[in-house]
Amino acid sequence: MAGNKLQVNQLVQQFHCVEYQEKATTQALMFRDQQQGKELTVVAFRGTETFDSDAWSAGVGLSWYELPGVGEVHGGFTRALGLQKNVGWPKNLEKSHVKQPAVAYYAIREMLSNLPEKNDNGKFIVTGHSLGGALAILFPAILAFHQEAWLLK
Questions:
Q1: Residue 23 lies inside a defined structural domain of this protein
Q2: Which of 25, 75, 110, 146 is the most buried (most CB within 10 A)?
Q3: Does residue 105 fall inside a structural domain?
């Protein structure tokens, strides 16, 4: 039987992440394929849902955020990925004793940082459509901003 030989072996994590509106509206899915000693992890950001006004508001805002050393980035997309009110992009978030939804950038970065420990040949790709595409482009830019070069190899 002819067909695509790629088989997804494991769903790593599904995220419903909190963003600037303090609602869990940013969604991402991570899955992993392991073949011939190599591991590929895919991070897929969900696009804008048709009837979700919260998701639409992330894309239609006209504000910009200055990312030092990089340039200006669309404010709604940065907030959807995890920009923190009043503090910008700290490298790490302080842990709260109160159970809160994950913040997209920090939760995904933490999951990805554990992958090389399991397999030195492991790689990841980031993808998305619409709002998800914007987050997929922004995610590695924030990794570079935080000097997480080892994750970007």
A1: yes
A2: 25
A3: yes
Question: What is the distance between the alpha carbons of residues 78 and 105, in angstroms, rounded to a whole number?
Answer: 10
pLDDT band at 55 (very low <50, low <70, confident <90, very high): low
- CB-based burial, 117-150: b 16+ in 10 Å, e otherwise: eeeeebebebebeebbbbbbebbeebbebeeeee
What is the Cα–Cα distance from 141 to 89, expressed in whole angstroms? 12
Most confidently modeled of 34-38, 43-47, 69-73? 43-47
For residue 126, what pLDDT is reported? 95
CATH of the domain at 69: 3.40.50.1820
Distance between start and end Cα atoms, the chain: 36
32, pLDDT greater than 60: yes
